[in-house]
Write a sequence for this structure.
């Protein structure tokens, strides 16, 4: 079967490459010519472990192609995935321009029955809007069906999440379209992956509700961590004991500087905004957003307290990305914290295994080092802001010699407080 994926960004590339791996013929489209030329040569514009090998293999074997020719892609495919970006503004209003443009092109170029699948995270009601736009733009009447199939891909483990998902959500009114799209996912039946079949609106809602709930777990445990600091509690023991209750579950209860990335911040704002536009206040989601904002600010205070005085203080920063195994610095707590520290008079020297090229664009005032020890050299204080594996086993003997004062602020709780104190460090973490 031939399918096409419109939008060769993060979601589109992972989706297209994984479907090609399932044996389908996939054409991925993007209007960025440069990107398409690079992709046809096997060069991927994002950092995602495992993606490049899969993509190169399918390219070589001819199951995967990249093009800017939207018309040909649409006409030769039965199923069309929409995976374009849906950025949001500060109020959480989601920008649907790219989706509208694609829907119009699909209408104009349609030559036969098509199944149109929305992968992008979109506000409830977008499916209906896409249907209307396609109809308005059709030059000849062709039947088509819509499916909402939200993605639940984590950066850094997106291939695994696609190949072994916890569930696949499909929202549609058409039995025929559902049968066609279920067939694309057939390899997952062997793994007994649950398929949740709903109407389009419910599928759109499931994506937002899932991300908002995960974000709620994080903000919840961050508040417990803050309380632990006031009552001499240990948040990890609290989280472990809570997580042993099957109804709660152990995941997403890791305290830290708050959530970042391209999804949780955008989707929580988008969800709250969507509800407000319908006359309903999602009070819990509003609180999750407020707690997350506050958590970043608390981290700045924590570092200031550890430093004594930030003016002229040289701070080494390990980790810039919003989490490990990605080069993504969007909404990364580290970036916000560094900007605040610089505003308050500190100087920052940083190292990140993958995030430095983008960080240089956003915070050029920072000095960038070649490795962790280069960042620490000559600084007064060390902050660990992202839990990359290579920061989990630092040579503390070496760091003692390089750092002016033995002060460490570990925003991801990757070290043991008593061990760090034994080593002679003034060590602060979150909620312990
Ligand atoms: C998330 C969702 O997990 C995914 O299903 C969705 O489709 C897209 O958004 P992603 O943004 O890649 O994926 O990252 P994730 O691993 O979920 O982490 C998000 C943020 O939460 C990171 O900043 C991470 O550091 C933080 N986090 C996560 C915590 O602070 N504590 C936790 O316990 C878990």
């Amino acid at each position: 079967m031939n399918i096409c994926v419109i939008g060769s960004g993060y979601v589109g590339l992972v989706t297209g490459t994984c479907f090609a791996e399932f044996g389908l013929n996939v054409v991925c489209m993007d209007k960025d010519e440069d990107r398409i030329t690079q992709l046809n040569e096997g060069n991927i514009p994002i950092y995602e472990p495992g993606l490049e090998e899969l993509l190169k293999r399918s390219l070589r074997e001819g199951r995967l192609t990249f093009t800017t020719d939207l018309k040909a892609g649409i006409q030769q495919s039965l199923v069309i995935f929409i995976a374009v970006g849906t950025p949001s503004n500060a109020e959480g209003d989601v920008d649907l321009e790219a989706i509208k443009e694609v829907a119009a092109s699909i209408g104009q170029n349609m030559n036969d029955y098509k199944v149109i699948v929305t992968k992008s995270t979109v506000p409830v009601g977008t499916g209906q809007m896409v249907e209307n736009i396609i109809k308005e733009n059709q030059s000849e009447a062709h039947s088509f069906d819509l499916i909402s199939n939200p993605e639940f891909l984590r950066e850094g483990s997106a291939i695994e999440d696609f190949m072994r998902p916890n569930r696949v959500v499909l929202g549609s009114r058409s039995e025929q379209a559902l049968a066609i799209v279920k067939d694309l996912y057939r390899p997952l039946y062997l793994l007994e992956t649950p398929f949740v079949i709903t109407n389009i609106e419910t599928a759109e809602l499931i994506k937002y509700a899932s991300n908002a709930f995960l974000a709620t777990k994080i903000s919840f445990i961050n508040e417990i961590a803050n309380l632990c600091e006031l009552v001499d509690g240990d948040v990890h023991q609290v989280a472990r004991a809570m997580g042993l209750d099957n109804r709660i579950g152990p995941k997403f209860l890791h305290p830290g500087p708050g959530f970042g990335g391209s999804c949780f911040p955008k989707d929580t704002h988008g969800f709250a905004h969507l509800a407000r536009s319908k006359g309903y206040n999602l009070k819990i989601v509003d609180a999750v957003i407020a707690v997350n904002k506050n958590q970043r600010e608390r981290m700045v205070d924590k570092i200031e307290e550890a430093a004594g005085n930030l003016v002229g203080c040289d701070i080494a920063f390990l980790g810039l990305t919003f989490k490990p195994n990605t080069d993504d610095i969007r909404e990364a707590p580290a970036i916000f914290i560094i900007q605040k520290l610089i505003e308050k008079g500190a100087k920052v020297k940083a190292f990140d295994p993958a995030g430095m090229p983008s960080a240089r664009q956003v915070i050029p005032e920072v000095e960038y080092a070649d490795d962790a020890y280069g960042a620490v050299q000559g600084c007064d204080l060390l902050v660990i802001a992202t839990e990359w594996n290579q920061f989990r086993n630092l040579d503390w003997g070496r760091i003692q010699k390089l750092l002016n004062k033995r002060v460490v602020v570990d925003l991801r709780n990757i070290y043991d407080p008593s061990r760090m104190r034994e080593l002679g460090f003034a060590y602060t973490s979150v909620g312990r």
Notes: Residues 2-198 form a domain with the Rossmann fold fold (CATH 3.40.50.720). The radius of gyration is 24 Å. The mean pLDDT is 96. Residues 151-155, 211, 214, 218, 252-254, 256, 259-261, 263-264, 322-323 surround uridine-5'-diphosphate-xylopyranose (CB under 6 Å).
